[in-house]
Design brief:
Number of strands: 12
Helix content: 25-40%
Mean pLDDT: 79
Radius of gyration: 27 Å
Number of helices: 15
Strand content: 5-15%
Distance between the termini: 40 Å
Number of domains: 5
Shape: globular
Structural class: alpha+beta
């Protein structure tokens, strides 16, 4: 069967032609999948040939392997790129600092230590602090204890030194105080305010310790913002991912078939409107997605936390949706959904996107050994219907619920069920379709209207 032949999909499902077509399609799919799996296994063996693997299933080894995978996914073959002659010539100051940190981090934790590197152990310690909620002072004391037991261990001297390592890797985040009523952020011009200028509520809340009866002030609500620019810059500091960022231009099949967003009309229309942006294939096209979830794994607690994710569509379709390539942009904490006020929390991200779209940021490209002005544009948002209302500002319920029909939405209120009903969907059918003349099955009228033009 020809892979591109889809004629077997037309017959009814109980026919022999359809059944044979499905079987042939599955045979081809499994054949291709087996080849890709062999390639994946070879790549994994090649990439981990010098990495010692634990021989038991202890939980500690699982965690260690997880950190190793995180470092490999994040930095790939950056250390190998450093060995190439002339790589240092075109580095920006930010890139020099990053490469120096990764190079130093490859050092052994102590002589003949095979399970940990300096960077690996620092990240493990920082993760330990976050999981067990150690204070900054307790973490510094833990470092002192380890240094006392292993004097020659290559570890940070204090919590602040460890935090600086994480920050230089581009993995840090910013805490921005937010109003509990979702009216504004303590950010930029309002960063030093004590109370919110909109609702008048305080940015602090009083928490009493039951043991000491001491009252301390904590932030009433905190938005966690993960800066986008350093994360995009890190992509081009590794030769593997830097080449992958050009896939949509250099390796994508351009035969007219729709395999990637670059084959779609929206991408092509954007390129025609902004030829200066499209002239450099390294400029980034992004998609944004957000939705609420309950992080406590129980439905008895009403809580809604909203992560905001960014997808990188420069990459090929088989990797752009993998977890290690999706960027967490911000976490909007609960306990309730931000609703239509989500735009208040999106301000830091929008400011970054505007700068990346209009100005760009100086970025070092390890493939060309040069710096360039990297720009980025947000082309799509991906969400369910309720989240669409929050992100776009267009209500998806009530009289004008349809974002396509807009103000021409045909709606009817059913007074006995107290619900809105939408019956104008027949307008999207061809003019000679029998449903357009069917009065009994619908609202008792023929449908003569023309389908609205999509926005």
């Amino acid at each position: 069967m020809d892979v591109g032949d889809k004629s077997w999909m037309d017959p009814r499902r109980f026919t022999d032609e359809y059944i044979h077509g499905v079987n042939d399609f599955l045979d081809k799919a499994f054949e291709r999948a087996s080849k890709e799996m062999k390639y994946y296994v070879l790549v994994r063996r090649f990439s981990s040939r010098n990495t010692p693997h634990p021989t038991n299933d202890d939980e500690n080894f699982d965690r260690q392997d997880g950190i190793d995978k995180l470092l490999q996914d994040t930095f790939r073959n950056v250390a190998d790129d450093l060995r190439h002659e002339g790589v240092r010539k075109g580095l920006s100051e930010d890139a020099k600092r990053f490469f120096k940190l990764v190079e130093e981090g490859k050092q052994e934790l102590y002589p003949r230590c095979k399970n940990f590197s300096k960077l690996n152990f620092t990240i493990r310690l920082y993760l330990f602090k976050c999981i067990h909620k150690l204070s900054n002072v307790a973490f510094s004391d833990l470092l002192d204890l380890i240094k006392e037991v292993i004097p020659f261990a290559q570890i940070p001297e204090s919590f602040y030194k460890a935090k600086k390592v994480i920050k230089d890797l581009g993995l840090h985040y910013e805490k921005i105080h937010a109003c509990t009523n979702d009216c504004m952020l303590f950010w930029n011009d309002t960063a030093k305010f004590i109370k919110y200028s909109v609702c008048g509520s305080s940015r602090w809340k009083n928490v009493r310790d039951d043991l000491t009866n001491k009252v301390t002030q904590l932030q009433a609500k905190v938005l966690r913002h993960f800066p986008l620019k350093p994360r995009l810059q890190r992509i081009f500091m590794c030769s593997e991912t830097s080449v992958a960022m050009r896939w949509h231009d250099t390796e994508r099949p351009k035969d007219g078939n729709l395999r990637h967003p670059a084959d779609g009309e929206a991408w092509k229309d954007f390129d025609s409107l902004h030829p200066d942006f499209a002239s450099d294939a390294r400029n980034v096209r992004l998609g944004l997605s957000s939705d609420g979830f309950n992080p406590f794994r129980t439905m008895s607690i009403s809580h809604s936390t909203w992560p905001v994710m960014l997808m990188n569509y420069n990459l090929s379709p088989w990797i752009c949706m993998k977890p290690e390539y999706i960027m967490l942009s911000m976490i909007i904490t609960g306990p309730s959904s931000p609703g239509n006020d989500i735009d208040v929390y999106l301000q830091p991200l929008i400011a970054e996107l505007k700068e990346l779209r209009e100005v760009g940021v100086e970025t070092y490209d390890t493939v060309t050994n040069q710096t360039f002005m990297m720009r980025a544009a947000l082309l799509w948002t991906i969400s369910d219907f309720p989240a669409l209302a929050m992100l776009s500002g267009w209500s998806t319920k009530g009289k004008w619920a349809c974002p396509t029909c807009n103000h021409n939405t045909y709606s009817q209120y059913l007074k006995h069920s107290h619900k809105m009903c939408y019956l104008a969907h027949r307008a999207f059918l061809p003019h000679d379709h029998p449903y357009r003349r069917d009065k009994k099955s619908f609202n008792g009228k023929e449908e003569l209207k023309v389908a609205p033009t999509p926005l």
